[in-house]
Design a protein that fits this description.
six-stranded parallel β-sheet, 349 residues, Rossmann fold, alpha/beta
Length: 349
């Protein structure tokens, strides 16, 4: 645990359960620390290897860090902004407030008020920035290409899974209507009978409130006679190896904040088909690294997928292109540098 006097950036994380924000924090914070940012997380639900501070350490934050600069409070949720405003404006701690917005919708009046209290605002994409009414800087999320990488061993091949089929088409994330899992299942029911070498894999947690939705999908698959070719794996221990095993990855969300999964797949040299939810359309180069379909349009999604099932070599070529694209445009080092500049602006006189 770093000394409070050394900490210059506090990254609060006020949510116990895994989320897209959690995934971002887990990948980003170590890279920021490695790049020389004196940063620590605050809150539950994060791995032990991240630099952390305790809530009691906040009592030491009336005193500036050893650098003499004001600390940065980098919030990513409303409740984190609230605490930052309380610490700075009520308790008078020498803090500068930064907020990262990934929302693809109009903000409520309350959220707008909170955002208006920030010293700097970051949008994770041009689209999310279009919903902000304040000046902001676009810093897109990046991927740690050391963690997400192409196949390196026999275990990274789909054949190592011991499942039927020669090629795998995958969909990961929580199983629910918002994520478009039903659109993926419908596309697979329509396409797989015509493309025998392919097996569909759905990897992700089913929470109790969405169990009935998942059960309906499984029943539909059973009735179609495809229970051995459309498989639910549940929440897997390591999704990274599955990205390497997929020949094609599908992200069919109806709505997203940012959405890291296509980048994680592309960094694994896997072609992608996505909806245009979140920042997906800003990640994919259509016809080169994958394809994009309108969110919620099942027919368009199916039509975007089918050319890859018909031509696995196309999936391989686009996967190779996707790897090069991510390494050039979405390496996490770009995000680290972009945020460093935002922190400097927040601390400017």
């Amino acid at each position: 645990m770093p000394s409070t006097s050394d900490i210059e950036v506090i990254a609060p994380h006020f949510k116990q359960r895994l989320s897209g924000v959690t995934s971002t924090v887990i990948q980003l914070i170590p890279r920021q620390a490695k790049a020389g940012v004196r940063i620590a997380t605050l809150g539950p639900g994060l791995p032990d290897h991240l630099p952390k501070m305790a809530f009691l350490d906040l009592l030491k934050c009336w005193k500036r860090p050893a650098s003499g600069r004001q600390r940065i409070w980098h919030a990513r949720r409303n409740n984190e902004m609230v605490v930052g405003v309380l610490l700075r404006d009520v308790l008078r701690m020498p803090l500068r407030l930064v907020f990262t917005s990934a929302a693809q919708r109009r903000h409520t009046r309350y959220t707008k008020w909170l955002i208006g209290r920030m010293d700097q605002v970051v949008a994770t994409s041009a689209r999310s920035g279009s919903f902000l009414d304040v000046p902001h800087t676009v810093v897109m999320h990046g991927i740690d290409t050391a963690l997400f990488h192409p196949a390196e061993s026999a275990d990274d091949r789909f054949s190592a899974a011991g499942l039927p089929g020669r090629y795998a088409i995958g969909c990961s994330g929580r199983v629910r209507h918002q994520k478009g899992t039903d659109l993926f299942v419908d596309a697979m029911i329509a396409l797989l009978p015509h493309y025998a070498p392919w097996t569909a894999i759905i990897a992700g947690r089913v929470t109790p409130e969405h169990q009935a939705f998942a059960d309906q999908l499984k029943s539909k698959i059973e009735k179609a006679g495809l229970a051995e070719r459309i498989l639910f794996l549940g929440e897997v221990d390591d999704i990274k190896v599955w990205y390497r095993r997929f020949s094609l990855f599908v992200a069919p969300s109806r709505n997203e904040g940012f959405g890291l999964t296509p980048l994680e797949a592309m960094a694994s040299s896997t072609a992608v088909v996505t909806s245009d939810a979140g920042a997906y359309a800003e990640m994919v180069v259509p016809g080169r690294t994958g394809m994009v379909a309108p969110a919620g349009d099942g027919d368009a999604l199916r039509n975007a997928i089918e050319p890859y099932l018909a031509d696995p070599d196309r999936a391989k070529r686009h996967g190779q292109n996707a790897l090069a694209h991510v390494r050039q445009a979405f390496d996490i080092g770009n995000e680290v540098e972009g945020l460093r500049r935002v922190y400097e602006m927040a601390n400017a006189p």
